[in-house]
Design brief:
This is WD repeat-containing protein 76. The protein is of the alpha+beta class. The protein contains 8 helices and 28 strands.
């Protein structure tokens, strides 16, 4: 093939030197697509030969080589002039575009005319508006830019020698709180599953039960135990705590926003002994108590950073167990002046993600460590290498949470990143608690959603709730035997993943928080 091309190049050079017409059709190999003609043809025999012929070792240039190169250069320029003039004649009359490009432009014009005639673009926009419901606009405003008037700077009422405004909560009927009953009365609260499923089906969500309570992704949420109205709290990614009274007239649709922390609020709970106290814990190392009526925060515990979880150890909520990311638990007594711990104990050197206190035998508490849940006796703790009372084995990845059942503590519910929900029997407190049920559940939320965590229903000893990654979006309620009891779904109001969920302690109500700072309430 190289010899044939070399002969053809020699003929072309001879025609150029003699002044005869050059046959470009034979000199240049055309593409198999006859309709696609190049805009410019560059005939360069020297370059083409070098590209297709393997490179050899260059020999030393001589005077004769230089003369031959000059002759080839002159020949190349003459060939290029002849070729350019021929191409210009070929492209004249169509603006320099080839037949293929002209045909392509005509097809584009015809397609656009057809789409415009059937109104496809307009139908597409209308379909998007129908399939993407707008998020609820209740609660906090989306941005401060929408506020036209300039608000005055806030000043401390204490510095102005003024009394703080008091937010009056509705009166609480005596004798209606579940946490004041003893263990025997709690066992009487167990109802048949059929009645329980019926109560779940009556819990609905409407547009006025969705509101933006905090500005960023929700990490924790809690119900106030009052029964006359629904009061909820939520903590977000950047340390803000929001209160929302359903149907209230506070501020923005019953929403009040506070900034007691600077990093994610990983855990919060209302005090059972003092319902006006809301305790919130943050990754920034602070544990604070808010007086809801006075809107004042007090320091309970403070370290540099890394607090993750807490739970009440005493019935009067004065003693707490607090866990951090460094595998340590601290025992806190709120009656002791200051904001330090009574004792500090190292559990798991890798990590610690959840603590849960036994509801009856409060000296026991469960700790969700890296790949095992350990139960400890607070009376026998040491600074390091504390002896475990029982262990819950079988987890292959990190454990997100572990909670004792709310009435008897005979079960422990764990949530693991190996896509399993597990229920263990802790009634006997043996060295290795037996596994009762394992439920498959997708736990991979990604980096933009809060990790799922299954929590018990305080009114039902053997049932729990957990968010779901399945579509359509829903919230699942399971029995401890693994059977699904109900799925909360609503095509109009539930179009997002509710990673954080919690049941009301006495009423038929469920709250869920999503990544945009909104709370969704299902209630009868």
């Amino acid at each position: 093939m190289t010899t044939r091309r070399t002969k053809r190049e020699a003929v072309v050079k001879l025609q150029v030197l003699e002044g005869t017409p050059v046959d470009l059709e034979g000199a240049v190999r055309r593409s198999s697509r006859s309709t696609l003609a190049p805009k410019r043809l560059k005939y360069s025999p020297e370059r083409n030969t070098e590209d297709e012929t393997p490179k050899k070792k260059r020999r030393t240039k001589t005077r004769n080589d230089k003369n031959s190169q000059n002759n080839r250069k002159d020949t190349k320029e003459e060939d290029s002039d002849v070729e350019n003039s021929d191409v210009e004649r070929m492209s004249a009359g169509n603006g320099g575009l080839s037949a293929y490009e002209l045909e392509r432009l005509e097809n584009i014009r015809q397609n656009q005319a057809f789409l415009s005639s059937i109104n496809l673009y307009q139908a597409t926009e209308e379909f998007k508006q129908l399939t993407r419901p707008k998020p609820s606009q209740r609660g906090l405003m989306r941005s401060q830019a929408a506020v036209k008037e300039v608000l005055p700077a806030r000043k401390s009422l204490r510095l102005q020698n003024k009394e703080a405004e008091i937010l009056t909560l509705p009166p609480e009927p005596r004798g209606t709180l579940i946490y004041e009953q003893d263990s025997k009365e709690k066992r009487k609260m167990e109802t048949h599953l059929e009645k329980y499923r019926s109560s779940l089906k009556n819990m609905k969500i409407t547009e006025d039960r969705v509101a933006k309570v905090v500005k960023d992704r929700i990490f924790s949420a809690a119900f106030h135990p009052c029964t006359s109205s629904l009061l909820m709290a939520a903590g977000d990614k950047w340390g803000k705590v929001g209160l929302w009274k359903l149907g209230g007239d506070w501020a923005d649709d019953g929403v009040l926003l506070f900034e007691p922390h600077t990093r994610p609020v990983g855990c919060m709970a209302f005090s059972r002994a003092h319902p006006t106290h809301l305790l919130s814990l943050s990754y920034d190392g602070s544990l604070r108590c808010m007086d809801v009526e006075k809107a004042v925060f007090d320091d309970v515990y403070d370290i540099d950073d890394g607090l993750k979880t807490f739970d009440f150890m005493s019935r009067d909520c004065s003693t707490l167990v607090v866990g951090n990311f460094y595998g340590e638990v601290a025992i806190i007594d709120r009656r002791t002046p200051g904001n330090s711990h009574e004792s500090l104990h190292s559990m798991d050197p890798k990590t610690l993600r959840c603590v849960s206190v036994h509801p009856l035998q409060r000296q026991y508490f469960a700790v969700a460590e890296s790949k095992v849940v350990s139960i400890y006796d607070s009376r026998c703790l040491k600074k390091t290498k504390s002896q475990t009372v029982s262990q819950l084995l079988g987890h292959s990845l990190s454990i997100s949470s572990a909670y004792f059942s709310p009435c008897t503590g005979n079960r422990v519910l764990t949530t693991c990143m190996d896509n399993r929900l597990r229920i263990y029997d802790t009634s006997a407190m043996t060295s290795a608690s037996p596994l009762l049920t394992s439920i498959s559940h997708d736990m991979h939320t990604g980096r933009w959603l809060t990790k799922l965590s299954a929590v018990w229903d305080p009114k039902q000893e053997d049932c729990f709730v957990v968010g779901s990654m399945a579509r359509p979006r829903k919230v699942n309620v399971f029995h401890e035997n693994g059977q699904s009891q109900h799925s909360f779904m609503d095509s109009d109001n539930l179009n997002t993943v509710l990673s954080v969920t919690a049941f009301h302690p006495t009423r038929n109500a469920l709250v869920g928080g999503n990544a945009s700072g909104r709370l969704h309430v299902f209630s009868d």
